Amino acid sequence: MKAVRFHATGDPGVLRYEDADQPVPGAGEVRIQVAGSAYNPADGGIRGGFLPIPVMLPHIPGYDVSGTVDALGDGVDGLTVGDAVVGFIPMHADGSAAQYVVAPADALVKAPASIPLADAAGLPSVGLTASQALFEAGELEAGQRVLINGAGGPVGGYAVQLAKRAGAHVIATASPRSTEIVKAAGADEIIDHTVTSVLGAVTEPVDVLLNLAPITPDGFAALVARVRDGGVVVSTTPTVPTPGDEKRNVRAATIFVHPDADVLSHLVGLVDSGDLHVEIARRVPLSELPAIHEQAEAGQIHGKIVAVPPSDEVAG
């Protein structure tokens, strides 16, 4: 089969589009013929060797996958060969940047039927991150106010949609490049952080502050002043400590996304009902994935990218 792999950690130049052995599913696993493999910034961190996620070399990146079940390991129930599936698969194992990938059956759910199967790869990890941040950590409820800092990225797009659907008043920061996307996602207020002070624009307290963007410790601490007493600050950026305020009972939570098939299945249902939209910026052939890593290093990636493996080659 064809795959993108790296044999040593380093810059994007270590990536190779090459032949690799087709994987064999073990007990509790299935093999998937990959339709789409989504690129995520953490893929670059693992490739670069600066994310603390141990992988065996050579390694195939890609932990978001959509595709068709091709073979079943022992003890797999609930899935059959031919099922269209989507999943957030283990980050330490060989991933989906290949024609075939092996994944735990319990990490997979039936794919949305209303969108192209390749595009469904853009849902799992970012959709789960948004849901876990808002509802597990933030405990967001209808009628509350939420400030989403950095709403223009893939996680932010889902966060805005999910918060709005939950009945919250959504305040979102975005650059001019992503304003229309954030508006279409349902934000009630949009702050252009390139020309407007977020502190100055948010005049009423919010119940939940969700940070999805690079931010300085001082800037993050200043935003906490806009959170009501008893509110919560949630962040997906572990490089900067998430600040709270003990005196005002404002708690802090840092999110590390984890697999959750029940929540992912719920998100798929929202996609098929039209209540959640999957936005894909670009689809590229799998052979171009190394170039996507290079563009990401240069800050040229905006939105979700899905790599599509060739389907007309016989896996070996």
Per the principal axes of the C-alpha atoms, what is the gross shape? Answer: globular
Beta-strand percent range: 25-35%
Q: Please count the helical segments.
A: 8
Characterize the main sheet: 7 strands, mixed
Overall mean confidence score, pLDDT = 95
Q: What is the percent of helical residues?
A: 10-25%
How big is the Rg? 20 Å
Describe this structure in words.
The chain is α/β, with parallel strands linked by helices and 316 residues long. The protein is 23% helix and 27% strand. Strands 3, 4, 5, 6, 7, 14 and 15 form a 7-stranded mixed beta sheet that branches. Strand 14, helix 8 and strand 15 (305-308) form a beta-alpha-beta unit. Helix 2 (124-137) crosses helix 3. The longest helix is centred in the middle third of the chain and has 14 residues, at 124-137. The chain is globular, with a radius of gyration of 20 Å. The model has no long low-confidence stretch (mean pLDDT 95).
